[in-house]
TrEMBL record:
PROSITE patterns: CADHERIN_1, CADHERIN_2
Gene Ontology biological process terms from the UniProt entry: homophilic cell adhesion via plasma membrane adhesion molecules
Keywords per UniProt: Calcium, Cell adhesion, Cell membrane, Disulfide bond, Glycoprotein, Membrane, Metal-binding, Repeat, Signal, Transmembrane, Transmembrane helix
Membrane topology classification: Single-pass type I membrane protein
Any GO MF annotation of the entry: calcium ion binding
InterPro entries registered for this protein in UniProt: Cadherin-like_dom, Cadherin-like_sf, Cadherin_CS, Protocadherin/Cadherin-CA
Pfam family, one: Cadherin
Major localization listed first in the record, in broad terms: membrane
Any one GO CC term of the record: plasma membrane
Name of protein: Protocadherin-19
Residues in Cadherin domain copies: 6-114, 115-222, 226-329, 330-439, 445-548
Sequence segments annotated as region (Disordered): 1-32
Length: 701
């Protein structure tokens, strides 16, 4: 029988963002033959962008996984066709094929692009609503919603510009939508963005500059050249002649209709002085804020046309106070509690400081004092609106990294020199359930663990212990375990410690493998969980023993290591003691030293006399056949000084070949009193060189 696939064609869809190494399981081929004659391998033709890897299931059947080997690009090629061949183990092998059709799914990897980064157009001020201004076009090579572009004004575009112009989101056509007045605005700049509808879209931007063409039909125009055209502030200490504002008067008409004369109306301590292209308003008297803190001034401009057209400009002059008060926070310590994983840019809290001074002296601005939070500048964590004191988060906080942090906010007024004060802000980050449990025991391979237990395991036998970690705290990190699927009739799990135990004995006819799907979930408000497949195999080779609880492998390892260290320590002490004892008992006998000591050492009052019968000189061949007890090394060396030698004294510095064997007779021989002939031999070149024998062992010279 040849392998066969269940369908004639396999269709797959793979995103073009799939990275090399991505695996996709394919449908398995079926072969009625069994064993080695069943399906053994799969092949793919051609083998260019994709590879094929044969996998084996737990039941021994084989299936193929499609492996992405190179990067994909839908814009380059969107469809691929391959032939999958399934081979059995016969000789020759039978095979079956199926056509594999792969469609590369588009991802939003191309951004819209305008033809030009900037456009400049003009429109007359009397253009009616609906007049087209410009049609913009941004192209996107992606398909579907990824390539569908929508146009809109950027948030930077002013509200007034939005009232005067509008843009069609589908076509990109900008048209007039309000009454355009040249005197109100000469030029409008519109920031337009084009954004596709795909995920993670990055918009394209362009700037459209619209110039308004004027019509000559306007009266004189008065411009007050000040920071605020409606309000001018001057210190109460300003001297006479101090300039408080500049005035520019213009008339877009030509000739006499464009020549303008100006004057300041009312009885006020100020005067207007005209120059060629502008005018100035000067202090013309003494100012006292305690008497009057503001003045309303009116400038009148009249042209020389017939009939004459005129215009007036009114503004307020506010007398400011001197800076003599510090800003004062409503409280010295602020605290805010925010949950982790907040949105960057989220509002946290507001700080507020008041200054009783007037004007800039009482105008308070805020800033954050430079400091460090986890070795990072505090400016990377929070920002503050310098005018309102609103504090915003610049990043998403992580409770597991930063539980709380503090910084100082500085409030300073606008005086010169400015006065300032500060307050402390503490941000507490609350934990949320954002960490999924991770199963750490038993070890998992592709989400599966294999456990072997004895076939004769009884009820309550500990199969394994499931452990999981969760980095959250409190209820978010407290875990419970349960079995959701599989052979739950044979096993039970402890919800707290994860111990899996048997609930019944396995008979002779029981199956050899059982499956359990175990889930570890936390107790957060929105519970997160992790699951694992536990494969339990019955093995007759194991002996069943009652398992009392989980085994502490670390404790066993420490005990074993300590036992080995103790045995090694005792062995070292034993060897050291033995070597020290041997060094005391085993000493080299030197003929020269013994003779010299005998002639020069004073005799003790209590001499320990040893009979000549106690020692004898023997050749080497006596060593193996005549081993006798020898006196201790210490007593031997001390007694040698009192021996009376009948033989000729050995020459000094005798060589190894001229040494003798010294052996002390046993206690029984001395008691017998037998007469022995004491002799020494000088063998010279004898192959059996004599040596000194102590305790029956030859020693070096």
């Amino acid at each position: 029988n040849a392998p066969s696939f269940p369908t004639d064609q396999i269709e797959l869809e793979i995103s073009e963002t799939a990275s090399p190494g991505t695996r996709v399981p394919l449908e398995s081929a079926y072969d009625p033959d069994s064993g080695s004659f069943g399906v053994q391998s799969y092949e793919i033709t051609p083998n260019d962008l994709f590879g094929l890897e044969t996998k084996t299931r737990g039941d021994g059947s084989r299936f193929a996984e499609l492996v992405v080997e190179k990067s994909l690009d839908r814009e380059t090629q969107s469809h691929y066709s391959y032939v999958i061949t399934a081979l059995d183990g016969g000789d020759p092998p039978n095979f079956g094929t199926v056509e594999l059709s792969i469609r590369v799914i588009d991802s939003n990897d191309n951004n819209p692009l305008f033809e030009e980064p900037a456009y400049t157009v003009s429109v007359p001020e009397n253009a009616p609503p609906g007049t087209p201004v410009i049609r913009l076009n941004a192209s996107d090579p992606d398909e579907g919603t990824n390539g569908q572009v929508l146009y809109s004004f950027h948030s930077y575009v002013s509200e007034r510009a939005r009232e005067l112009f509008q843009i069609d989101p589908q076509s990109g056509l900008i048209t007039v939508s309000g009454a355009i007045d040249y005197e109100e605005g000469h030029v409008y700049e519109l920031d337009v963005q084009a954004k596709d509808l795909g995920p993670n879209s990055i918009p394209a931007h362009c700037k459209v500059t619209i110039s308004v063409q004027d019509a000559n039909d306007n009266p004189p125009l008065i411009n007050l050249l000040s920071v605020n055209s409606e309000l001018v502030e001057v210190s109460e200490n300003a001297p006479p002649g101090y300039v408080i504002a500049l005035v520019r008067v213009s008339d877009r008409d030509s000739g006499a209709n464009g020549r303008v004369q100006c004057k300041l109306l009312g009885n006020v301590p100020f005067r207007l002085q005209e120059y060629e292209s502008f005018s100035t308003i000067l202090v013309d008297g003494r100012l006292d804020r305690e008497q009057r803190d503001q003045y309303n001034l009116t400038i009148q401009a009249r042209d020389n046309g017939i009939p004459s057209l005129q215009a007036t400009k009114s503004f307020t002059v506010k007398i400011t106070d001197e800076n003599d008060n510090h800003p004062h926070f409503s409280k010295p310590y602020y605290q805010v509690i925010v949950q982790e994983n907040n949105t960057p840019g989220a509002y946290l809290l507001s700080v507020s400081a008041r200054d009783p001074d007037l004007g800039l002296n009482g105008s308070v601005s805020y800033q954050i004092v430079p400091s460090q939070v986890r070795d990072m500048p505090v400016f990377t964590y929070v920002s503050i609106n310098p005018n309102s004191g609103d504090i915003y988060a610049l990043r998403s906080f992580n409770h597991e990294q930063t539980k709380a942090f503090e910084f100082k906010v500085l409030a300073k007024d606008g005086g010169n020199p400015s006065l300032q004060s500060n307050a402390t802000v503490r941000v507490i980050v609350l934990d949320v359930n954002d960490n999924t449990p991770v199963i750490t025991a038993p070890p998992l391979v592709n989400g599966t663990a294999e456990v072997y237990i004895p076939r004769n395991a009884g009820v309550g036998y500990l199969v394994t212990v499931v452990k999981a970690d969760d980095y959250d705290e409190g209820e978010n990190g407290r875990l419970s375990y349960e079995m959701v699927e599989g052979d739950r009739g044979f096993f039970e799990i402890d919800q707290v410690n994860g111990e899996i135990r048997t609930t019944r004995a396995f008979g002779e006819n029981a199956k050899t493998a059982y499956e359990l799907i175990v889930v570890a979930h936390d107790h957060g408000k929105t519970s997160l969980s992790a699951s694992a497949l536990i494969l339990i195999y019955l093995s007759p080779a194991l002996d069943a023993q009652e398992s009392i609880g989980s085994v502490n492998l670390s404790l066993i390892f420490i005990i074993a290591l300590g036992s080995i260290a103790a045995i090694l320590f005792v062995t070292m002490i034993f060897v050291a003691v033995k070597c020290k004892r041997d060094n005391k008992e085993i000493r080299t006998y030197n003929c020269r030293i013994a003779e010299y000591s005998y002639g020069h050492q004073k005799k003790s009052s209590k001499k320990k006399k040893i009979s000549k019968n106690d020692i004898r000189l023997v050749p080497r061949d006596v060593e193996e056949t005549d081993k006798m007890n020898v006196v201790s090394c210490s007593s031997l060396t001390s007694s040698l000084n009192y021996f009376d030698y009948h033989q000729q004294t050995l020459p000094l510095g005798c060589r190894r070949s001229e040494s003798t064997f010294l052996n002390v007779e046993s206690q029984n021989s001395r008691n017998a009193g037998s007469n022995h002939i004491y002799h020494h031999t000088f063998t010279g070149q004898s192959p059996q060189q004599p040596d000194l024998i102590i305790n029956g062992m030859p020693l070096p010279e």
